[in-house]
Each structure stands twice: as C-alpha cells, then as structure tokens.
## 1
Amino acid sequence: MRSATRVMAGLLMAATVMIGGARAAEYEVRMLDRGEAGMMVFEPSTLRIAPGDSVRFRATQPGHSAESIPSMTPEGAPLFKGRLNEEITVTFDRPGIYGYQCKPHYAMGMVGVIMVGEGEAARANLEAARGVSHPPRARARFQRMFQGLAD
Ligand SMILES: [Cu+2]
C-alpha cells in the first residue's frame, strides 16, 4: 500500500505540462510536520530538475512556509518567499543550486535543495552554497543532501 502510494506520487510529480512548445515538468514538495527523515521536513528535500521546470510547495500540513536562502541561490536568480501556510509554485529558469527553508522551522532543520540543470552550470554555485553556515540541525541535513547531489 505504501509503495503503491509512492509510485502514484512519483507519477504525479513527473506529470508534464506544455509551456510555449517546450516540455517542462512540475514537481511537488510537501511541507510536513513529520516525514521519513524525521520531524519538520520538506519531502522530497532534494530535487534535480531541468531549467524551466517548476516546483509546487504544497502546504500539506499547516504552520510551514517555503522561501529562498539568498546565499544559496545562483547569482542573478530571483528569490521566492512564501508566507506561512501559503502554497507557491516556483519556476526555475537559471541553472544552479537553490537552498530554501521553512521560516519557522529553519533552526529545526526544515530545509531543502534543488539542483537545476546538469554539469558545470548546475554546480557553478555548489561550493558557495556548501560553505554557508547554518544552525546545527539545518547544517546536518544540508550535508546529507549535498552528499546525495555529489555524483
Ligand atoms: Cu516548517
């Protein structure tokens, strides 16, 4: 049952939409009090997407938000900032690493990373993003996420 649900979620996340003739995907990140990685999480907390794809931050449970961490955003890319309980959809046009947080639960480690694009362009700000300092729980989760993006 659990795995069937996951497969369905995966199919939904991979649903593609047509934008100006190019195929762009829309992904979903849920904001949760409790997930597979523990308390106060974005799920999935790591995404690899293509330029032009968008991510919908779902207010699955109340009390959360999604907003950019400016020091973990590619140079020149727009910042996003959802209010508490707000569901936002963000389109990522510029390649690179995007770190984001839930404002109320940043110190509890409610953070996530989106890698846009592939190769050099996607990693242009990787070292800068990895070098940003955070409270201990956020730091620990970011470290695991960056390990997952290393290959
Ligand atoms: Cu939160």
## 2
Amino acid sequence: MSGDKYDLIVVGSGFAGSVTALSLLETCKAQKKPGRVVIVESGKDGERCGASRWTSAYLRLDKDNNLDPARIDEMDRVSQGLHNRDYCAKMYVEVPKTMAYLLEHGVKINHHVS
Ligand SMILES: Cc1cc2nc3c(=O)[nH]c(=O)nc-3n(C[C@H](O)[C@H](O)[C@H](O)COP(=O)(O)OP(=O)(O)OC[C@H]3O[C@@H](n4cnc5c(N)ncnc54)[C@H](O)[C@@H]3O)c2cc1C
C-alpha cells in the first residue's frame, strides 16, 4: 500500500465506511472513470467489527419507510430532553432518501407492528 495512490481512503469498515466506499465506486462507474478505494480497518482479520457487527437493524420506520415521528418523541423521553433535536430533524429528512438507496440495492425490509 505504501506509495500507492487512491481516490479515497476510508477509515473503518462499518456501515458508514462501507457505504462511503460503495458510493464513490458507483459514482466512478456511472462517470466511466476508474476509482481506487482502500478501507482501513483496525479490527481482527476476517471478523466484522464496530457497532455494525451487533446491530439488529431495527430501523423504526412507518409503513411508507419514513422515520416514525414517534421515534423523535421517544428520544426526547429516554434522554429527558438532552438529545439533539436538529440531528433528529435531519434524520427525518434523510431517512426516505437512504431507504430508497437501500431498496435500490436489494435490501429487504420487514415491517413489524409493535
Ligand atoms: C448492540 C447494538 C444494537 C444496535 N441496534 C441497532 C438497531 O436496531 N437499529 C439501528 O439503526 N442501529 C442500531 N445500532 C447502532 C448501529 O449499529 C450503529 O449506529 C452503526 O453500526 C454505526 O456504523 P458506523 O459505520 O458509523 O460505525 P461502526 O460500525 O462502529 O464502524 C466503525 C469501524 O471503524 C473501525 N475503526 C475505529 N477506529 C479505527 C482506526 N483508528 N483505524 C481503523 N479502523 C478503525 C472499527 O473497528 C469499526 O469497524 C446498534 C448498535 C449496537 C452496538
């Protein structure tokens, strides 16, 4: 790797890092440009690492794959008002776009009523 050149160096192979790498490579492919990405991971070889390894991928969506507004109220309640409301508002806007991306990439969603 020493001396090699990359378009992107991603630190961490969790969801954030993996999707960042995928996104860059998809953009390069769409633009018919070569793209070289390296993902650097400090975890054990051959094992999934970080929080992404443990998630049950419970996404708290409504039936239309929007972030359930009750989730924001829940955050308010469990954090006793200490959570970042701007962050939640941003998530509310970004979740439908993210869900569209995941569905386009073949991710299957199971809706459970709880
Ligand atoms: C038990 C559990 C249950 C969860 N359940 C849910 C759920 O139901 N629904 C939900 O939406 N979210 C859930 N989450 C949260 C979700 O898993 C995380 O928000 C998400 O996985 C974070 O992804 P990430 O890529 O940002 O971080 P991570 O997956 O933690 O990835 C970071 C990576 O960076 C690596 N790294 C760190 N430092 C370095 C370094 N210096 N050099 C190289 N590599 C480094 C780490 O080893 C790791 O692999 C859960 C989390 C846990 C722990």
